[in-house]
Specification:
11 helices, globular, binds S-adenosylmethionine, Rossmann fold, alpha/beta, seven-stranded mixed beta sheet
């Protein structure tokens, strides 16, 4: 039986920060791709515990980190204190951002806004709060990459409740470009190395313990199905390991970097108060 959970309830399960820490390079790469720098007004949507927001703030940008899960943002606040960084944290849904039109120079979302169920609403909001000429930069898992296979495995045991395209559709270049229509969109497949040197069964155990969608899946399965799921998950991470035989394991995920530049505001031409002299 699949329990219906709000996004806030789901992402408060387990401890996503322990998973995010394994792929911290992704947030840093996103901040570099968005060319975030001192004095820029930056919004991170679906910021979690801040793996993009914190490196953005470290550049000297003024950062607002938003998410539906306050529990994760509390962990992010502690990371910020530990690193001596100042940023603002605010609960907000990607589908309805509590900000004015054009308030930010750069809008970031590191595998965050892709999880909002109404993808068109989330895309509209990302674009709306970005200033003319500014950028929306996203990292989205790809449907034909390892994370796409991972989510298909999870959905065999724990079918998604909503209709509409799944989150992973945001990792398809055509789909992302269509959602962000009106902006000049570029996409680029990238990889992030998983910072985990243990064997596949240890990585599976880490995900089962900490990754919210897996904690929810196992909670909703009976013990026989849960054991089958755990076995398949170990197989998944075994296939993902590309390390040398007898050597240390090596795991990586593919994602789509999406960079969308909004059109610059076109100068409004004012009608002259009086016709030019030559015309009189
Ligand atoms: C995979 S985590 C990524 C977190 C963070 N960006 C990172 O890179 O570590 C997905 C995040 O999206 C958030 N999220 C899910 N649905 C959301 C929504 N509708 N609006 C805002 N955030 C949402 C979750 O709470 C979670 O923190």
């Amino acid at each position: 039986m699949t329990t219906t959970r709000t996004a806030q309830e789901l992402w408060a399960l387990g401890d996503y920060d322990r998973v995010a820490a394994l792929i911290a390079d992704q947030g840093r790469a996103l901040v570099a791709a968005a060319q975030v720098g001192p004095g820029m007004r930056v919004l991170d949507v679906g910021a979690g515990s801040g793996y993009a927001a914190l490196p953005a703030a470290a550049t000297g940008a003024e950062v607002v980190a938003t998410d539906v899960a306050p529990e994760l943002m509390e962990i992010g606040k502690q990371h910020a204190r530990d690193r001596g960084l100042t940023l603002r944290w605010q609960v907000a849904d990607a589908e309805k951002l509590p900000f004015a039109d054009g308030e930010f120079d750069a809008v970031l979302s590191c595998i965050g806004a892709m999880f909002a169920p109404d993808q068109s609403a989330a895309a509209r909001e990302l674009l709306r709060v970005c200033r003319p000429g500014g950028t929306v930069t996203m990292a989205n898992w790809m449907p034909d990459g390892a994370v796409g296979r991972f989510f298909r495995l999870v959905s065999r045991y724990h079918p998604a409740s909503g209709d509409g395209p799944p989150p992973i559709a945001w990792g398809d270049p055509e789909h992302a470009t269509a959602l962000l229509h009106g902006a000049e969109v570029r996409t680029e497949p990238r990889r992030v190395q998983i910072d985990f040197s243990g064997p596949p069964d240890a990585l599976a155990a880490h995900y089962l313990r900490y990754f919210p969608p897996l904690v929810a899946t196992v909670a909703d399965l009976d013990s026989t199905r849960a054991a089958e799921f755990e076995r398949e998950l170990v197989e998944f991470f075994t296939d993902l390991d590309t390390g040398p035989v007898g050597g240390p394991p090596s795991y990586a995920y593919e994602y789509l970097l999406v960079s969308a530049r909004l059109p610059a505001r076109t100068a409004v031409r004012r009608a002259p108060a009086r016709p030019p002299a030559a015309a009189r």
